Amino acid sequence: MPQTRAQSLATEIERWIVERELAPGSRIATMDELREQTGLGRATISEAARLLAERGAVDVKLGRSGGLFVAQPAAVVRLRHTLLSVSQDPARVTDALAVRDALEELIDVDAALHRTRRDVRDLEAIVATMRTHAASRADFLQANWALHRRIAEITPNEIARSVYLSTMAQVEGLPSRPDADTADEDAAYLGRRVDVHAELVAAIAAGDPARTSRAVVAHRALTSPNAAPVAPPD
Question: InterPro entries given for it (predicted)?
Answer without folding.
Answer: GntR_C, TF_FadR/GntR_C, Tscrpt_reg_HTH_GntR, WH-like_DNA-bd_sf, WH_DNA-bd_sf
